[in-house]
Design a protein that fits this description.
Elements (H helix, E strand, L loop, with lengths): L12 H11 L4 H21 L3 H10 L4 H14 L3 E7 L5 H9 L3 H7 L1 E4 L2 E7 L4 E8 L9 H13 L5 E9 L6 H13 L5 E6 L20 H13 L6 E4 L1 E2 L10 E2 L1 H11 L2 H11 L11 H21 L8 H18 L6 H12 L3 H9 L6 H29 L6 H18 L6
Parallel strand pairs: 1-4, 1-5, 5-6, 6-7
Antiparallel strand pairs: 2-3, 3-4, 8-9
Length: 441
């Protein structure tokens, strides 16, 4: 990866921050310039707010303390409508494809994101371990004759015994042409006996493997092929009494040539919504409402990054809807710092919270006055919070888009172009305002 040359002392604020990120050192001139941005705003705050101390508190909220960020994110995590999905099925049964369908991230990113949890399980949190909206636990070794099924069952039971506020769901994955399901049935039976209140979804996958020979693409959903119906009925009978709902899906790769790639995604979404509490169901609907995000733009990094920007925009809107002026500013700042840190990691840059906060400050300084105006509008009864929620979502989205340009330039060995980044953020903000208009908590 190419590195940028150190700028001269008269370089603009964003260029100075580039050296801070790439060289992992704090530059005093950069800190002075950033401080100058906030100091200029201090006078305006003091004039707007009746109490000088309150104005100073508002300014202080924009500073980035790593300890405070960690504390805030921990509190936010406790309030998120998080869904834990235990994916139980043989290898190649479509478990990782379900993760791709619900998160939209690439197969490569999903593969890198899974981490060992126990001997027979791996875990993946989206968009991050610190702020997960979705947590997937994947079973490994299922169907291996050398593995003890009871050991796998005990590990899954141990996972379910852990105290958590997250909504949970069991997702059994079976290939439509696989009828050797006794081990899976045994696991599902014991889990359901111990935890009958946790809903169970049976996802039947890989439909194209039993399509008639002359079929070149997916039919209208649901598929009405005799081969599919016969196999689906047989699997449903095998799991009768164990699953609450059954759904047909076929999530393939782009190179497989089947369209749509995520065949049956809407059916999966709606079925999950029926089985999950309202808050978690709404979060999944919002995550999958990404028509603009889903368009192919020919850039893997930017496309993948948008899959991480979206949940942070949703979280920002939810938290900004709290009808207390300025009460959510520290939380929103922490969320945005966390988002920029994740985007940096995606582009090969490891940032501390302080460095991520510096990126946020540098590329979004022009929005500071608008941010304060957004908080003040909460004083308007009824309409104020809705405006704040949509503004926070649009602003967070625009910030993520601008950060992608910034990190993309670094990855290419170029000095980030301040004017281009600000232009991207302005355009992204205007487009996102329309998209997130009327977003609900």
């Amino acid at each position: 990866m190419g590195m940028t040359e150190p700028p001269d002392p008269d370089s603009q604020q964003l260029s100075e921050l580039t050296d801070n990120v790439t060289n992992k050192s704090v530059d005093n001139s950069w800190k002075n310039r950033i401080a100058g941005v906030w100091n200029k705003a201090t006078t305006g705050f003091t004039q707007l707010l009746p109490v000088e101390q309150l104005a100073q508190n508002v300014v202080d909220w924009f500073s980035v303390s790593e300890t405070q960020v960690a504390e805030i994110l921990e509190k936010v995590k406790a309030e998120l409508p998080t869904t834990e999905a235990l994916l139980i099925g043989k290898p190649q049964a479509g478990k990782s494809s379900i993760v791709r369908g619900l998160t939209g991230v690439s197969a490569e990113i999903v593969g890198q994101g899974f981490r060992p949890h126990t001997q027979h399980t791996q875990r993946y949190a989206y968009p991050s371990n610190e702020l997960p909206l979705l947590i997937f636990t994947d079973t490994v070794g299922l169907g291996d004759v050398n593995q003890d099924t009871q050991v796998i069952i005990q590990e899954l039971l141990g996972n379910l015994q852990q105290d958590t506020r997250s909504a949970r769901i069991l997702v059994l994955t079976v290939k439509i042409n696989d009828f050797a399901t006794e081990t899976l049935r045994q696991i599902a039976q014991q889990l359901r006996q111990q935890y009958p209140d946790i809903p169970c979804l049976l996802a039947v996958t890989c439909l194209h493997e039993v399509y008639p020979p002359d079929t070149v693409d997916h039919p209208a959903y649901p598929p009405d092929f005799e081969e599919v119906n016969r196999a689906f009925n047989g699997i449903q009978e095998a799991f009768a009494g164990l699953s609450d709902r059954c759904v047909l899906i076929d999530f393939t790769l782009e190179e497989d040539g089947y369209n749509p790639v995520f065949y049956g995604l809407e059916a999966l979404r709606d079925t999950l919504a029926e089985l999950l509490p309202q808050a978690e169901a709404q979060a999944i609907y919002q995550l999958l409402d990404r028509e603009e995000v889903g368009k192919q733009i020919g850039n893997l990094y930017r496309d993948t990054a948008r899959r991480y920007i979206l949940p942070f925009a949703i979280m920002s809107a939810t938290l900004a809807a709290v009808p207390l002026p300025f009460a959510t500013m520290p939380v929103l700042t922490a969320l945005q710092v966390s988002m920029v840190g994740i985007l940096g990691k995606l582009y090969g840059q490891t940032l501390t919270p302080s460095q991520a906060g510096g990126v946020v400050s540098a590329i979004a300084g022009g929005f500071l006055a608008q941010a304060i105006g957004r908080e003040l509008i909460k004083f308007i009864p009824v309409f104020g919070s809705a405006i704040a929620a949509s503004w926070a979502a649009a602003y967070t989205w625009a910030l993520g888009e601008a950060a992608c340009v910034y990190f993309g330039d670094l990855m290419g060995g170029k000095k980030p172009d301040t004017q281009k980044i600000q232009s991207v953020m302005q355009e992204a903000f205007q487009a996102a305002q329309e998209r997130f208009k009327g977003i609900k908590r």
